[in-house]
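Hi R.,

As promised on Friday, here is the backbone we talked about, encoded as structure tokens. Could you run it through your design pipeline when you get a chance and send me back a sequence?
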């Protein structure tokens, strides 16, 4: 599965249950082709400004994403999932958006002064 894909996947919720949720694939992980993903949802009010990213219905890559409504791509909700947790592909985000997400996540991981 290539980076930038928007997929439907079984994601563990806070209560431990699995729920089908949209995710964005950030990277394939070695050695078993697991995927590093971040959650996407329609709860825009949960945006962490300067970290998360909103993909709006007016954005150039929205139609190709397969999402139905404007959505929040939540870098704070990441997981490594086995390929078997992916239920299917919905679409993809633009290369530029994927690069921004990766850069933000990388900068956050490297900065010990952030909360």
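Update: got your reply. Pasting your designed sequence below so it's all in one thread:
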């Amino acid at each position: 599965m290539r980076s930038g894909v928007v997929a439907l996947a079984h994601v563990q919720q806070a209560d431990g249950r699995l729920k089908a949720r949209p995710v964005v694939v950030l990277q394939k992980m070695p050695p078993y082709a697991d995927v590093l993903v971040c959650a996407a949802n329609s709860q825009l009010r949960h945006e962490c400004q300067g970290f998360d990213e909103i993909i709006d219905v007016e954005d150039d890559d929205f139609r190709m994403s397969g999402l139905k409504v404007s959505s929040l791509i939540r870098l704070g909700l990441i997981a490594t999932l086995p390929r078997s947790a992916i239920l299917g592909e919905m679409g993809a985000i633009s290369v530029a958006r994927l690069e921004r997400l990766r850069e933000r996540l990388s900068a956050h991981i490297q900065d010990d002064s952030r909360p």
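One thing I noticed while checking it: The CA atoms of residues 14 and 77 lie 11 Å apart.

Thanks again,
M.
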